[in-house]
Design a protein that fits this description.
Blueprint: E1 11-22, E2 25-31, E3 34-36, E4 40-44, H1 51-58, E5 66-71, E6 74-75, H2 80-84, E7 87-90, H3 102-113, H4 118-127, H5 143-155, E8 161-165, H6 173-186, E9 192-197, H7 200-206, E10 209-214, E11 217-223, H8 224-229, E12 232-237, H9 241-249, E13 256-260, E14 263-268, H10 273-282, E15 289-295, H11 296-305
Parallel strand pairs: 4-9, 4-10, 7-8, 8-9
Antiparallel strand pairs: 1-2, 1-3, 1-5, 5-6, 10-11, 12-14, 12-15, 13-14
Bound molecules: adenosine-5'-diphosphate (ADP) and magnesium ion.
Adenosine-5'-diphosphate binds near residues 27 and 52.
């Protein structure tokens, strides 16, 4: 079997040198992604970064210009249907009948697919937390419930890989929370999730690892926890930046100190601002400004997007 987590080095999806050009526009450039079984992987980038183009290629809807895609240890080019019947995708609002209930909608779709039991329908409704509203008409559902029914539909076929392209876009805050809370629960040892989002906060909340895309190029890739734990960036103003930098560099828990425009940019653990302040004061140096510039991940992303990536 090629589809078990212990084979293929635990890699469920791999892209190698994946690129797509639309005419002269390079939408995705030399993308090397590796998703492992059971994780929630975030593909983060501002609008136009190439996320949806990537998903389109993974679903065999867009032909890559160059490069390779391997899913479950099989090459997508040669094994499109055996792969895609094991992949679920929520890429746009699915078309449900407004006058049918959520459950009747799923039953109609299950009949079209075939081989899906009634208990399976109850099971997926429960997983997306819709069991108690399953008999209400789709038209009465909130935006978050509609999106969750879409996820339930995807779950009917027991996918081993779920692709979510901006699943909370257009949702109100309540719906956004409902859908986000659901995402980590979709992943387990036999199901992996790829979440595309332009929202840093969303990726930080639900993903294990993240790749950041900028104009089609991957500019960072790391475990979310590692990027966040790398610390906060403090921006400090002191009378003598060079002397203060030397003091801070001698502290074992300070990762890095850079001087820029008369300020020091210090990469230090979270909640260490007062310790930084104290270390300087002990040397008779006093910060006239000390500002938290956010986490490392946030800094990378804000450079790409300005404020747009903030919730
Ligand atoms: N079918 C297409 N024809 C031409 N350009 C496209 C097409 N699809 C996407 N693009 C362009 O490719 C780039 C990446 O788009 P997309 O993958 O949709 O980004 P994202 O999903 O990250 O917002 C954008 O500049 C977009 O305008
Ligand atoms: Mg998109």
């Amino acid at each position: 079997m090629v589809d078990q987590p212990n084979v293929n080095n635990g890699v469920v999806l791999r892209t190698t040198g994946l690129s797509k050009s639309f005419g002269r526009l390079a939408a995705v450039k030399d993308l090397n992604l590796e998703l492992r079984y059971g994780e929630v992987f975030g593909l983060l980038g501002p609008n136009g970064a190439g996320k949806s183009t990537t998903v389109g290629m993974l679903l065999g809807l867009i032909a890559p210009t160059t490069g390779d895609i391997e899913v479950f240890g099989l090459r997508l080019k040669e094994h499109r249907w055996p792969i895609l019947r094991r992949v679920g995708a929520v890429i746009e609002e699915p078309a449900f009948y407004p006058y049918l209930s959520g459950r009747d909608n799923l039953e109609a779709l299950a009949r079209a697919i075939g081989g899906i039991s009634r208990s399976k329908i109850a099971d997926v409704l429960e997983r997306v937390n819709l069991l108690d509203r399953a008999h209400d008409r789709y038209a009465t559902y909130s935006m978050g419930m509609k999106q969750r029914l879409g996820v339930a539909f995807t779950l009917l076929r027991d996918p081993e890989l779920i692709l979510l392209d901006e699943p909370t876009s257009g949702l109100d805050p309540a719906g956004t929370k409902e859908v986000r809370d659901l995402i980590p629960q979709l992943a387990n040892e036999r199901c992996t999730v790829l979440l595309c989002s332009h929202l840093l906060h969303e990726v930080e909340l639900v993903c294990d690892r993240v790749a950041i895309l900028k104009q089609g190029t991957m500019i960072a890739s790391a475990p979310v926890r590692e990027l966040v734990a790398r610390g906060q960036m403090l921006q400090i103003k002191v009378a003598d930046p060079s002397a203060a930098a030397a003091v801070l560099r001698s502290l074992p828990w300070v990762k890095s100190v850079e001087e820029a425009d008369g300020y020091l940019i210090v990469d230090a653990p979270r909640d260490s601002a007062s310790r930084v302040n104290q270390a300087l004061a002990e040397q008779g140096m006093f910060a006239s400004e000390l500002v938290n510039r956010g986490t490392s991940l946030e800094n990378v992303f804000l450079e790409l997007t300005g404020k747009e990536g903030r919730d």
